[in-house]
Each structure stands twice: as structure tokens, then as C-alpha cells.
Design a protein that fits this description.
The chain is mainly alpha-helical. The chain is built from three helices and no strands. The protein has one domain. Helix content is about 75%, strand content about 0%. The N and C termini lie far apart (about 110 Å).
Length: about 100
């Protein structure tokens, strides 16, 4: 069995085919929506998911605090003392001079 002989026109087609495959490969890796872009987007998605999880935790804490403020009188009194400096009816405030 003989090897097929590569003629001038066949070489040209082979060369064009190889260039075409290289060009497609370059665009697949570096082009818009290529492999590098997909890797960057995957990394960005991971960061966004982490940020969303953090926000979900904050939302849960705020929802619990809203529930306490709506339903728990002791918590309301605690917040009034802590943030507003208020005292209860049966409490006495002593101020000492230095």
C-alpha cells in the first residue's frame, strides 16, 4: 500500500485547515465567551454567592430583631436603656461627681 502523495493544492488545503483549527482554538480560549471568560465569570459568581449568603444572614438577624421589637417588651426595655439611656419606673439613677 502506497502512502498518499501530498501535492501542492493538497498542501494548501492542509495549511488552510490547520490555520482554521488554530484560529478556532484561539477564539475558544481567548475570545468573547471563551474559556478564560468562563473562568472569570465562574469566579465572579462564587464571590456573588458568598456576598448573597452574607446578606441572607444579615436579613435573618434583622427579621429576628423586628420580631423581638414587635412582641417582646423586655427586649424593647433593654434597647431603650442601651440606646436611649432610659431607666425603668422602679429604678433609681445615681450620678457621682468625680
Amino acid at each position: 500500500m502506497k502512502k498518499p502523495k501530498i501535492t501542492g493544492s493538497n498542501r494548501r488545503y492542509l495549511f488552510v485547515f490547520i490555520l482554521f483549527v488554530l484560529a478556532v482554538s484561539v477564539f475558544a480560549v481567548f475570545g468573547d465567551k471563551g474559556l478564560l471568560d468562563a473562568y472569570r465569570l465562574k469566579s465572579e459568581l462564587s464571590q456573588i454567592n458568598g456576598y448573597n449568603a452574607k446578606l441572607q444572614g444579615i436579613n435573618t438577624e434583622l427579621t429576628e430583631e423586628i420580631s423581638l421589637l414587635e412582641n417582646d417588651k423586655r427586649y424593647i426595655a433593654f434597647i431603650a436603656r442601651k440606646e436611649l439611656g432610659m431607666i425603668g419606673r422602679d429604678e433609681i439613677l445615681y450620678k457621682f461627681e468625680e
